[in-house]
Amino acid sequence: MAATPADVIEHPDAYAFVVDMPGIKGDEIKVQVESDNLLVVSGERKRENKENEGVKYVRMERRMGKFMRKFQLPENADLEKISASCNDGVLKVTVGKLPPPEPKKPKTIQVQVA
Predict the structure, then answer these.
(1) Which CDD domains does the protein's record reference (predicted)?
(2) Can you name the residues that pair with 41 across neighbouring β-strands?
(3) How far apart are CA 73 and CA 62, in angstroms?
């Protein structure tokens, strides 16, 4: 499932990562932040064992197995403000933004008169 579709959206106060996860329950999805501001979404879609005697798959097109997506977070991402929710097969991870740094004021140096 390397081609799991995802959208990355920038809001004024946060980033949103929206990933399609059809058929996967929220508790089967793992969301982590690794070193170097790397957001990792992983999990596994398992095949339903519904084959009974005399019943077999004629065609199997849906991807099964483990998947992983990695996203490089921007430098202004606030790693303390991360939330994730899964609704109707769509995972949404929200990462808050750090406030912009205060502009440095120029330092004034007093000239000594000799």
Answers:
(1) ACD_sHsps-like
(2) 31, 69
(3) 30
